[in-house]
Amino acid sequence: MQGRALVVGASGITGGHTARELIRGGWQVYGLSRSAADMGDGVIPVGANLLDATSVEAALETIAPTHVFFTTWTRRATEAENIAANSAMVRHVLDALAPKRSVRHVDLVTGLKHYLGPFDAYVSSGLKPETPLREEQPRLDLPNFYYAQEDAVFAAAARDGFTWTIQRPHTVIGKAVGNAMNMGTTLAVYASICRETGRPFRWPGSRAQWEGLSDVTDARVLAKHLVWATGSIAAQNEAFNVVNGDYFRWSWLWPRLAAWFGVEWAGFDGEIHPLEAELADGAEIWERIAARHKLKEFRFDRLASPWHTDLDLSRPLEVMTDMSKSRRAGFTVFQTTELSFTDLFAQLRSDGLIP
């Protein structure tokens, strides 16, 4: 299937991989971001402030996509602010496109907070949803900007007559520079700093995450799922978990990641050691490392997002998802999680982003 795609957030991990997957399939691809920077790979850059309806309308004035992929979000201080900002971004894009009557399908990428709620909510409430997480589980009675985004899509679909698919990945592993949520590259930077300074590659998270089963989502798998959903009747007006398809324990994976970098590792020792504290001096150290190894990115905060990795790895509960619904609908892509990380590490090294 081919068409004209608008990828909202095309400079991020999910958006960038989705744009490249679409290009390989022969699609015409517009990449919408705030800066309209060159995204390469044949993506046509479009710049707009998604929080400004006038800016979005002007940017999309001459663009009539058949498919829209929402792959971005903005972080705010409270969940009420998250709801207002993130639902507005979805509405502004779909409202700007509505008069053209060109949109046939919309894909919205959210995540597992659909089942868990905002981080503060499940930490303070002791909420422990049944795992593996399944799409049939109802919404929680909690404020959640994912629900507001979904509702914005549902309302526009009812108004404009397009179909939709919701994708719910776990932590997305893939390359992007300047991304706000980037566990894979954050761990690569952490391991590189450990090697340069002689520090142990110490597990930063909780006992539940260290010992429990988990899964992640390779950005390449998510991109294929997004493109698959555009042409699958079984995916129309449905929500899907999207993960690699295997389960692992961090107690098994952590030593293997350390071995890739050739560093000593330390497991859970009874306490959480947040990366934000471990890497408080990361910016200064990274600048020295980047200069010595002639790396392409000197700014630590363009590569690492310790706060987000801490949120994932310090969860007080086991988190994993069920992929049966996608399998039954015909999506059979599988990815080994260890290779998700090591393929990324190799790419970062090849691209001159880590030593």
Protein architecture, described:
The structure is a single chain. By secondary structure, the chain is of the alpha/beta class. It folds into two domains: 4-169, Rossmann fold; 179-215 and 247-319 and 333-351, no CATH class. Helices cover 43% and strands 14% of the residues. It has helices at 13-24, 53-59, 79-97, 113-116, 119-125, 145-160, 183-197, 207-211, 219-231, 250-261, 275-278, 282-293, 306-313, 324-329, 337-350; strands at 4-8, 28-33, 44-47, 67-70, 105-109, 163-169, 172-173, 201-202, 213-214, 217-218, 238-242, 248-249, 265-266. The strands form four sheets. Strands 3-2-1-4-5-6-11 form a seven-stranded parallel β-sheet, with helices on both faces. β4 (67-70), α3 (79-97) and β5 form a beta-alpha-beta unit. It is globular and about 60 Å long.
Helix and strand topology:
Layout: E1 4-8, H1 13-24, E2 28-33, E3 44-47, H2 53-59, E4 67-70, H3 79-97, E5 105-109, H4 113-116, H5 119-125, H6 145-160, E6 163-169, E7 172-173, H7 183-197, E8 201-202, H8 207-211, E9 213-214, E10 217-218, H9 219-231, E11 238-242, E12 248-249, H10 250-261, E13 265-266, H11 275-278, H12 282-293, H13 306-313, H14 324-329, H15 337-350
Helix pairs in contact: 1-9, 2-3, 3-6, 7-12
> Could you tell me the strand content as a percent range?
5-15%
Bin the helical content. Answer: 40-55%
- How are the strands ordered across the major sheet? 3-2-1-4-5-6-11
The CATH homologous superfamily of the largest domain corresponds to NAD(P)-binding Rossmann-like Domain
**Total separate domains:** 2
* Arithmetic mean pLDDT: 95
Q: CATH topology of the largest domain, what is it called?
A: Rossmann fold
Total E-strand runs:
13
Order of helices and strands: EHEEHEHEHHHEEHEHEEHEEHEHHHHH
Which secondary-structure class do the elements indicate? alpha/beta
CATH domain class of the largest domain: Alpha Beta
The number of distinct helices, counting runs of at least 4 residues, comes to 15
Biggest pleated sheet: 7 strands, parallel
Distance from N terminus to C terminus (CA atoms, Å) equals 40 Å
Could you say what the CATH architecture of the largest domain is?
A: 3-Layer(aba) Sandwich
The stretches of 5 or more residues where confidence is low (pLDDT under 50) are: none
Shape: globular
| Rg, alpha carbons | 20 Å
Protein name: Nucleoside-diphosphate-sugar epimerase
Pfam families: PRISE
InterPro entries: NAD(P)-bd_dom_sf, PRISE-like_Rossmann-fold
Organism: Kaistia hirudinis
